[in-house]
Structure formats: C-alpha cells, structure tokens
Amino acid sequence: MKMPSNAYSALIIISGLLIWASSFVVLYAALSLGCIYGWSATAIRSGLALLWLAHLLALVALVAWSWRGMRSATHARQHGFAWYATVLVALVGLAGTGWTGLPLLVVTPCI
After folding, report:
1. Angle ∠(54,92,84) on CA atoms, nearest 5
2. Are residues 45 and 106 in contact, defined by beta-carbon separation less than 8 angstroms?
3. Whole-prediction pTM value?
C-alpha cells in the first residue's frame, strides 16, 4: 500500500481524531434534538447507539486499513512513520470514541 504524499498524508494521520470529533458532535446533537422533540428514551438511546456504532466501525476499519499499510510499508521501507502515526492516532480515536459513548448505555437520555 502506498501512503499519499503531502497534505493527504497529514489528513490521513489525523483522521482517527476527526472521526472521534464527528462522533462527539453528532451524538451530542442527536441527543439534544431527541430531547427537544420529546422522543422516547428508548428511541433516543437506540438512535444514539446506532450512530455510536457507525463511528466505532469506521474507526475499526481505519485501524485495520492503516495496520495493513504499516505492515506493507515496513517491508517496502516507505512512509513507515506516517502509517505508524496513523495506526496510533486511530487507536486513540477509537479509545476516545468508546469512552465518550459508554454513558449512552447507562445514563437516562433526557433529565
């Protein structure tokens, strides 16, 4: 696998944190809209869980893709740092997304 050069590689490296930020904003907005419009707690919790799961799956796919890129770059001796950084940042994004989404499962949505 080949890492794109220039600005694309920087974007790929930070993409794990961008997905985490997207998850945080989307979950917060969906919770607020659900509470404003009076949706049931079950509907809010189900919708938030689906949105959270979509972000987690995107991060898992990013980790898998960047892991494969890192493994092939190690053999080719090209862009090793960029792939390694992408894997680490994606894992940080995955941990952050998992941590910020855990309260969805146990806390009452609208107080």
Report:
1. 110
2. no
3. 0.87
